[in-house]
Amino acid sequence: MLQGSILQKLGSAHQSEKTGKRPLNFGVYYKNTLVALCHALEDAILDSDSAPLVITAFQQGKWYLQEADRYGEIADQASQIVIMAAAGTGFAEHPTSQRSNVALVNLDKTDPVAQEWHLIILSPSYTAMVLCQELSEADYGAAGVPQNDLERKFYGFWTFESGLVLETAELAIAHIHRYDPELQQALAGQVEAIATLAQNQEARCNQPSAENLGEIVFRVVDYLQTSQQNLSQPTSYALNAQQGLDNNLVSNELQAYLRVAQLIDQSDVNNPMAAAEVATLAEVVGQLLDLPAWQLHRLRLAGLLHRMAFLQTFESDLISGTVHYDDAPGVPLSCPLVPGTQVLRKMQRLRAIATIITHQTEWWNGSGQPAGLAGDEIPVESRILGLVAEFQHYLAGFRAEDSSDSLSRALSECQTQQGDRWDPKIVEALQLLVSGLQQGIDLPISLPKIAAGLWMLDSHSEENLLNLDSYSEAEQNASLKVSQ
Question: Among 61, 273, 312, 403, which is 20 to 30 Å from 331 by CA?
Fold first, then answer.
């Protein structure tokens, strides 16, 4: 990272253990991925009433000119837009640049920020950020700088996390001081006012829901998939280059979900490690049951995303009415499905994961929801996930009470419903795991490396776990509970 760049300053602030800040998870992004990401995040401004502060870095004026008309529309909604770029190509003369709430910062060509691509969106109801720096010629190595513009690579990350967005906005504003002290002072006042509201735990940016982040993730995935479809058209890309672009897009579709799941955990002050713990525990239970590696992969991913199923609307806990499984479009599900599951189904590669998460609330005796499946009709990963998530929930509660026997108490709570709610053989596997933990077996729990999670997706992630087409009409009527 270039010394003195915003990315470098933020990264350094999160490197020292003394600061207590979580280390950042960086990745490499192709330009076409960043274009799709930024457009999706910007569109959320156009469809909301958040009136955010928007700070961008476009590297050069010519790149801003390509987006200037679009930023004119964003300016209608934003309270303030700040655009940093090296001067040139007449970008200061564009009508958008003349607007009262649009400020230009002409970067020196030697300024490291002139090599960065940033989009910082800050408001009490919506925060998002893309923070990247273009690879240098030396970084590209023997392959050299790509000839095709969309194959240019950037190093950095993106997030919805309000604390990180706020921290980065403050760094960007401090950098602006050298160019325009008056603008810097005005922006500092705006950020302070936004921070007062955004840091409240009740602020909408800290309350993931189907209406805000669910819809934004839908849009992010849609833009990335459209970009992926464009790659499939006849082009001059070499096969390996196209595969790299394609993988980068798919990786970021998955990242969109993982980042929301991370935010859900962070908003739960009583159980902020739920996803990581459930994923680890579920994978170990799967190992004890001798599941193959591909099932362990998707079980771990389902664990990381399992709280997405409870991403609710502000108005109600569940969406009612008749919906369909994407797995079997011809078979209606007349039972309610939580909105978060439907968000997951947007990504084709998460078909099996969405099904696993949907049916984590089924009961072994058939009295659960949403489909009333019983026994082995319930996917084994769903049975494991449901039990482990419940166990971890109890465990977190008993830890909060400083209980010395939290493991035993949490297991006991689950055992009371063995044979009714839970598959007996999976409860036995959980008991083995708890026994090992009580005897001192170390089970490291770590936050997922979001930018490197593509390995968890394989062809099995697209499987149909429930063959609803094979059900008889009577079975369908019995298992799919009607809820109008």
Answer: 312
**What's the pLDDT at 342?**
74
- Kindly report the backbone phi and psi dihedral angles of residue 57, in degrees, each rounded to the nearest multiple of 5, phi listed first: -130, 120
Query: Which of 191, 207, 223 represents a domain boundary (last residue)?
Result: 207
Domains identified in the chain, total number: 2
Write the DSSP symbol of residue 422.
Answer: B
Q: Are residues 183 and 311 in the same domain?
A: no
User: CB 93: neighbour CB atoms within 10 A?
Assistant: 9
212 within domain boundaries: no
- Taking the alpha carbons at both ends of the chain, their separation in whole angstroms is 56
Residue range 297-320: mean pLDDT, rounded: 68
Residue 481 near residue 372, CB atoms below 8 Å: yes
For residue 471, pLDDT beyond 70: no
pLDDT of residue 447 exceeding 80:
no
pLDDT at 111 over 90: yes
- Per-residue pLDDT tens digits for 415-438: 999 999 999 999 999 999 999 999
pLDDT of 254 > 50? The answer is yes
**Domain range spanning residue 131?**
6-207
Higher pLDDT, 241 or 281: 281
Single out the residue in 207, 228, 259 at which a domain terminates.
Answer: 207
DSSP state of 315: S
57 has which bridge partners? 84, 118
Q: Are residue 191 and residue 292 in the same domain, yes or no?
A: no
State both tokens at 309.
Answer: 């199923």
* Nearest by Cα to 215 from 126, 112, 124: 126
Per the CB < 8 A criterion, the answer to whether 101 and 78 are in contact is yes
Work out the percent of the chain whose per-residue pLDDT is above 90. 47
Side-chain-side CA neighbours of residue 154 (13 Å): 25
Pair (373, 475) in one structural domain: yes
The domain that holds 404 is classified in CATH as 1.10.3210
List the beta bridge partners of residue 155. Answer: 28, 133
Identify whether residues 293 and 195 lie together within a single domain.
no
Query: Rounded CA gap, 8 and 321, in Å?
Result: 49
293 and 202 within one domain: no
Q: Scan for tokens 């829901």, then name that residue.
A: 209
CA distances from 23 to 15, 17, 95, 304, 369 (A): 6, 9, 41, 19, 39
Give the DSSP H/E element, type plus range, for residue 324: strand 323-324
Supply the CATH number for residue 108's domain: 3.30.870.10
- Count the Cβ atoms, other than its own, within 10 Å of residue 326: 16
Of 147, 152, 168, 156, nearest to 116 by C-alpha is 156
* 116 has pLDDT over 90: yes
Question: Count of alpha carbons within 13 Å of 209, Cβ hemisphere only?
Answer: 17
Shared-domain flag, residues 25 and 133: yes
> Distance between CA 40 and CA 224 in Å, rounded?
9
